[in-house]
Design goal:
Length: 586
């Protein structure tokens, strides 16, 4: 069984040299910093005893510059090595998470919220980066710099060191307390900011409805409220941060006061030299950060740990639908489809709740034929289509393609033989060309043009000055529902697969465009196996076989003529729609 930490171990192993170099550089920087007070001591002591000339002073100054340069160089190295590795861990984990999520079945995405997944991919992974990058630095500085500074101070004077350390636990404890509060504050500010951007985004997306319903004032108030909340949260955070830093300053100044008084007395009594006194103050300055780091690092690591656990839990989810070891492969599909006593339900326990979405479906679709599926909304038409590319797996029965149970086929292979147009086509925020080709630049121009023409898209594209290079905006916002549907159709026509599945492809186009699309589909009959769901029955009337679904059962099955003779759902709906179309035409 894998542990959460096993998820990031490989990155530590892979980058071990960089981490070692980084830690070494960090320690060198610490040591150089600790060396500076020693030089100051030397200079002050020599100055107070008039033991130094101008040249010596200059050489100390140059020495100091040399140290500063080295500190700069090594600081650059450790930042690159340690924080760079943390960035790599962040990138690797995010890619791994995304790749894994992509393997999970559609049923998983029915259960989780997109916002939660976004939080895992951004927030959690960021916490892991902080814990591994800054966590390592803070831990190192707390231990190495902290202990060494205390050591150097004790070397100067033990009892003075003991007094000076009295306020230090206060720094550790209050950093721990405040860093927790500050973190929570940052989270709330971020949430308020996302809320604000979302509220504004939504209002712009729905600007036409807002205008049409005269909701301007109400919507402005909603934005104002979100904006006010953002300001309030920021002010709350400013109050926390604003009290934290002065408090740290107070504690370190408390130690400084102790040094001034007790150290000053020891200097007067000649227990320590004036140089020691000044060096002591410098060490004290160096000690504040390690004390803060000590308080911070526990929070960093705790948060990183919790985030890593959450990511680990997701990575441990076994995809419900995955390839078996000895999965089959169809080189060239014929498109012969059989449903054998197929039953399906969403969720875990249908028997208890009595909701079976599809029951005992028996169906055979010969290669190159067209199957039309009709039925009232919610009867299971889309569900039946989703089962073929295995977006969901059936619980009972078998679906065969060219004699292979689809569960025995390699998923990639199965899906490569099926072109699928879902009910609500999704467009990415690129150009029309990118949306049709999925960014594949290898596709020959004439094939693309043919797909565009067959999907009755050329008029639309010619009307845009930029043609195929027109940027469609977020989710294809500049396009009508029908245009989006036709882009999705062109996308499918380009994918030269044996089986074409369409979920109501003409639901949002006008009668004329619908007819053009149907004609294209009819032309493909004989070459591809086509399954088409449509609420407009004229779109399937030419099919070799039409089935009517009702509450997940097949209630009618036959050709248009047979179903018309049956005079049931199909025939009645067909006549009704005919009258509607005649009325529309009139
Ligand atoms: P149709 O395409 O015929 O309108 P669907 O196949 O979309 O019907 O839906 C059939 C039934 O399954 C409906 O009752 C619907 O509420 C339910 N359903 C559809 N998708 C899901 C889902 N992802 N999770 C749970 N139930 C669903």
């Amino acid at each position: 069984m894998m542990n959460a930490s096993d998820q990031i171990k490989p990155y530590f192993i892979e980058n071990r040299t960089k981490i070692m170099i980084g830690l070494l550089s960090l320690i060198i920087v610490d040591m150089l910093q600790l060396f500076i007070p020693r030089i100051i001591k030397r200079v002050v002591d020599d100055l107070t005893t008039f033991n130094m000339d101008g040249w010596q002073l200059l050489s100390f100054a140059l020495f100091m510059i040399g140290i500063a340069v080295f500190i700069g160089i090594f600081r650059y190295i450790w930042r690159r090595c340690l924080l760079g590795t943390a960035r790599r861990i962040e990138e690797g984990l995010r890619n791994m998470l995304f790749a894994h999520l992509q393997c999970l079945s559609a049923a998983y995405f029915d259960k989780v919220k997109t916002g939660d997944l976004m939080a895992h991919a951004t927030n959690d992974i960021q916490q892991i980066r902080m814990a591994t990058g800054m966590g390592m630095v803070a831990l190192n500085d707390a231990i190495v710099l902290g202990l060494a500074a205390i050591g150097f101070m004790a070397y100067i004077n033990v009892s003075l060191t003991a007094y000076v350390l009295i306020p230090m636990p206060l720094i550790v404890i209050s950093t721990r307390f405040f860093s927790k509060k500050m973190h929570r504050g940052y989270q709330t500010v971020q949430a308020a900011f996302s809320d604000l951007t979302e509220v504004i985004r939504e209002r712009f997306a729905g600007i036409r409805i807002i205008k049409a319903h005269h909701r301007n004032r109400e919507e402005a108030a909603r934005v104002e409220a979100a904006s006010q909340n953002y300001v309030d949260e920021n002010i709350r955070l400013v109050k926390i941060v604003g009290s934290f830093f002065p408090m740290m300053l107070f504690f370190s100044n408390l130690s400084l006061a102790i040094v001034l008084y007790l150290g000053g007395r020891k200097t007067i009594m000649a227990d320590i030299t004036p140089g020691d006194f000044v060096a002591f103050i410098s060490y004290l300055g160096l000690l504040t950060w390690p004390m803060m780091a000590l308080g911070w690092v526990t929070n960093l690591i705790q948060r990183g740990r919790a985030s890593l656990d959450r990511i680990h839990q997701i990575l441990q989810i076994v995809p419900e639908i995955s390839d078996s070891e000895d999965a089959d492969f169809i080189e060239e599909a014929q498109g012969h489809i059989i449903f054998e006593n197929v039953s399906f339900h969403y969720g875990a326990d249908p028997e208890e709740q009595g909701i079976t979405t599809l029951s005992q479906i028996d169906l055979e679709i010969e290669p190159g034929t067209v199957l039309g599926i009709v039925g009232p909304p919610g009867c299971g038409k889309s569900t039946l289509l989703n089962l073929m590319p295995r977006l969901y797996d059936i619980q009972r029965g078998r679906i065969l393609i060219d004699g292979h149970d689809i569960r025995t086929l390699k998923i990639q292979n199965l899906r490569s033989h099926i072109a699928f147009i879902p009910q609500e086509p999704f467009l990415f925020a690129g150009t029309i060309r990118e949306n049709i080709t999925f960014g594949d630049q290898q596709i020959p121009e004439d094939r693309l043009k043919r797909a565009v023409r067959d999907a009755a898209l050329d008029d639309t594209i010619n009307n845009f000055p930029a043609g195929l290079e027109t940027v469609v905006g977020e989710k294809g916002v500049i396009l009508s529902g029908g245009q989006k549907q036709r882009i999705a159709l062109a996308r499918c026509l380009l994918q030269d697969s044996a089986i074409l599945i369409m979920d109501d492809p003409i639901s949002q186009v006008d009668l004329e465009t619908g007819t053009a699309i149907i004609n294209t589909i009819r032309k493909m009959a004989g070459q591809k196996t086509i399954i088409i769901v449509s609420h407009r029955l004229s779109a399937v009337s030419y099919a070799d076989c039409i089935i009517t679904l009702d509450l997940g059962h097949i209630t009618e099955c036959g050709t248009h003529r047979q179903l018309m003779e049956l005079n049931d759902y199909y025939a009645q709906t067909y006549r009704l729609q005919e009258i509607e179309e005649d009325l529309d035409a009139a």
